[in-house]
Amino acid sequence: MKLTHSLWQSSIYKRLFIAFIAATIPIYILAGILYSWASGLLRKDIVDSAETQSENYISELNGTLGRFNSLQYDMLNDTYLIQLVNAYDILEPYRKIELIHFLRAKLVSIRNSSDLIVDTRLYLSNIGIEISAVDGYGLMKENVITPAMLNDPYNIISYNDSLLIVAYPLESEYKDTPEIIVEIELRTSELKRGVEAALEKEFTGALVLGLGSNADNIIAVADDKLEQPIKEHYRKLVQVESESSNELPPADLGKDYIFVHSALTESHLYVDHYLYKPTMFRTISEYIQWFWIFFGATVMMVALYLYYVNRVINKPMVKLVRAFKRVEEGNFELNIRHDKDDEFGYLYEQFNEMLINMKVSIDEVYNQQIHRQNAELKQLQSQINPHFLYNCLFSIIRLIKMQKDEEAIQFTNQLAKYFQFITRSKRDTVPLENEASHARNYVMLQLARFSDRVSVEFGEVPDSLKPLSVPRLIIQPLVENAFVHGLENVTEGGMLRVSFLDEIERAVVVVEDNGEDSENGLAKLYALLLGDQEAQEITGILNVHKRLQYSYGAGSGLRASRSELGGIKIELIIERKGAMADVSDVNRG
């Protein structure tokens, strides 16, 4: 088909035609080469992917087992355990029972820490007691501990059709049985399910997970026709003398299988992955055939297609795009027309109606949004954490019972100032000096609970920032987040630091701590501030972030990062171009 001059002048037509030529010529030249090495490349990619998955899986499993070893080591050094073992003969009966219950609770905690654990047991051979997370406690059974169970501490062993990790004090000397033994029994079905989920692909023929230094610690996942040969092969290897089970030869499943082996030598973990080649390369030949069919059909139809695109889609679309650009420039006095009664005619008609509706409703929508935002901020500002109130009231009661009247009076005055500040509704903004004073008062209230385990460094507000007008209750939620999510479970050495920075283009308030679980907490804060969570509740940290952006623009808000103290660092940023001084409220409560 001969192209007309006007059609050729179309820029979109030129781009489509040139793009087609530029794309098809290299493909045509490389098609022969692609056919010859595509299968080899696919094989390499699949094998590399399988090996990477296997290595990642055993690395994660090794990390999990390492965590189990750490829990066992912590159990061996538990204060209650040492007290029970060393002073069993002189302890009162009720104290013995109490210590045993404490130890069982810790065993239950270890068991509940992972679905891989069936049971966690503690054997105290010198006093003849056996404690189990599942079965409770009782007298230690005869021959429950054998020498075979003690040959490989802190590694997985196979014993009585069970997978165990046995730990005991390695530095202690014993003749028959160690005084203290911590045993973790693993759930074989969960290990099998985990390896299936982590490694199985559509071209997987069989999977074998090797655990521990014994070749019989094997979990096999295979098709029905392969399961028996796989198991028989690895059973025979139990009798083969080799330096490590990580070096076991693969099973002979025929030429249709590719063997991939991944191992961690130091922990004796390995994964054998058998890939089924016919499934791997099934689509290659079909892909090549359909490629050439598609290429030939495309060459014949491209000219007609481009002509159709230009006439039916390109020209009307260009007209519509130009109209939208004029709307972006603020011109709502448009009326575009289309001669044909087709989809573009409908779009043009709806575009014209949209402009009319926009002119009528834009002011109403804007005003509604402003009212909604103001109402939302009012509601958020009035929220009170009931748990904080309960804790404060309990602290007052405790001070009164301890006959510390002066401290109780001071604490009550601080609490009164706190509620006087947060319930005040005359103004939406306060000077930064007053906001910082309120946050410092909140910290003093919290120290009634945390004073013996948390220290606070609360910096002074620079004179240049004291009159800065800010929304009320923007620092307290950050401090509250540090106490609740960072320092709540700290037993000693906790640190909270609040500082104020006067920079050239912005004012910054920094709240940081050395709390626990900072990785998880930081990830949650990133997701919250970036808006990755659906249907987020507008409270707490997100409340402060949105209020700052509403008040001072998108450049303001909260930024979360890791603190030099070891916990989470939150920076409250106020861009100076959107900030205002409020001198009249500098001395107001």
Instruction: Classify the oligomer.
Output: single chain
Main sheet characteristics: 6 strands, antiparallel
Mean pLDDT: 77
Please count the helical segments.
15
Distance N terminus to C terminus? 83 Å
As a whole number of angstroms, the C-alpha radius of gyration is 36 Å
Quickly give the structural class.
alpha+beta
Order of strands side by side in the largest beta sheet? 3-2-1-6-5-4
What general outline do the C-alpha atoms trace? flat
Helix content: 40-55%
Sum up the structure in keywords.
5-stranded mixed β-sheet; 589 residues; single chain; disordered C terminus; alpha+beta; 6-stranded antiparallel β-sheet; 18 strands; 15 helices
Characterise this structure.
The chain is α+β, with helices and mostly antiparallel strands and 589 residues long. The chain has helices spanning 5-9, 11-76, 79-86, 93-112, 188-199, 224-236, 277-280, 282-328, 343-381, 386-401, 405-422, 432-450, 476-487, 518-530, 540-552; strands at 117-124, 129-132, 136-139, 156-159, 162-167, 180-186, 204-210, 218-222, 257-264, 269-276, 429-431, 454-458, 468-471, 494-502, 506-513, 557-562, 568-575, 580-581. Strands 3-2-1-6-5-4 form a 6-stranded antiparallel beta sheet. A 5-stranded mixed beta sheet has the order 12-14-15-17-16. Strands 8-7-10-9 form a 4-stranded antiparallel beta sheet, sandwiched between helices. Helix 10 (386-401) runs antiparallel to helix 11 (405-422), helix 11 crosses helix 12 (432-450) and helix 12 runs parallel beside helix 13 (476-487). The N and C termini lie far apart (83 Å). Mean pLDDT is 77; it is low at 1-9, 241-246, 534-538 and 581-589.
